[in-house]
Amino acid sequence: MESVGALDFEEIRKRIRMCDYLSVAQIYLKDNFLLTRPLDFSDIKPRLLGHWGTCHGINVAYANLKYFFRDNPNFLFVLGPGHGFPALQANLFVDGELEKIDPRAKVDAEGIAYICKNFSWPDGFPSHASPFTPGIITEGGELGYALANAYGMTLGHPEKTIAVLIGDGELETATAIDSLNLHNLLDGDKNGKILPILHLNGYKISAPSIYARKSERELNEMVRGFGMTPIWIEGDDPEVFQKALNSDTESPFYILKTEKGETGPNRHHEAHQVPLKNPASDGGELRALEEWLKSYGEVVNV
Ligand SMILES: Cc1ncc(C[n+]2csc(CCOP(=O)(O)OP(=O)(O)O)c2C)c(N)n1
Questions:
Q1: Residue ranges of domains in the chain, CATH in brackets
Q2: Residues ≥6 apart with Cβ < 8 Å to 111
Q3: Which of 47, 127, 164, 181 could bond to 120 as cystine, CB 3.0-4.6 Å?
Q4: What's the pLDDT tens digit per position in 238-252?
Q5: Which residues contact 171 (CB under 8 A, 6 or more apart)?
């Protein structure tokens, strides 16, 4: 692969900021989506539903994979934590994929208003990935099947490369951890290639995940025990991510280590769903939400 220039990294960072902004805006806003005036109580949805904590990591993975595999039409991305739907929807929106099946999701200011207003809204988009989402055929919300499904998709398709993002909480399910054995069972020449990415953001709802409490050495040994080679991606810097993707390693198993809720107002278990609970009535929280949205800068250029 050709070398990646500073401008490319900046493009990736910008895309991540844009998708972070859209993730937050979908969860919170029913108006004033581009902050064209100071945020008001009346701009906030009355019932806040959605999962922010995992979104930044999804946006980081999506942007980097999308960039790295941009010339590979046989590349696919499978998302385990479907509760991070605001992030998935943000990415599908900015790429124009959503617009292909729903013309109201046009990539402009009206389209932004449409996806944000209708996220977790009566008769709008559900809060989790669902069959309404391009590329998804089953109702989501149940963790554990991403890796097994992805291996199934590669059967008889050696041309395919599928990256699978697996939550560290998700990896505690029997289905997900046992699916790591598929690596040893499937013939690499007849089938496609799987790139597992463990999203080690430390928490599973309100408690630390088991894998986040293992030492680096224990995790490395576990991954090697499944016949793969651990490659750590520490933090959200695209330079680090691209370098990891570029490493010429046989059977890689990526470990993306981010802080749950990173770029938001609070971290870890407090960030799992909606970090600021009452911005529709608490002035301090409203200002904190405004600052949070503004922290992404002028990313939504429409
Ligand atoms: C099989 C199953 N068990 C439990 C849940 C409830 N649940 C929803 S989100 C979540 C935490 C998942 O943690 P992780 O995969 O690490 O995702 P993240 O922390 O990045 O949100 C759990 C346990 C579920 N969706 N599916």
A1: 7-294 (3.40.50.970)
A2: 93, 99, 104, 105
A3: 127
A4: 999 999 999 999 999
A5: 177, 198, 209, 211
Residues having CB closer than 6 A to ligand 1 are: 51, 53-54, 81, 83, 141-144, 167-170, 173, 199, 201, 203-205, 209, 260, 272
Per-residue pLDDT tens digits for 133-142 = 999 988 778 9
Q: Give the span between the Cα atoms of 211 and 136, in whole angstroms.
A: 28
Is the per-residue pLDDT at 65 higher than 60?
Answer: yes
Q: How many contiguous H segments (helices) and E segments (strands) does the chain have?
A: 11, 7
CA–CA separation, 115 vs 134, rounded Å?
14
pTM above 0.85, yes or no: yes
**Which atom of ligand 1 sits closest to the CA of residue 143?**
26
Structure tokens at 152: 């199934």
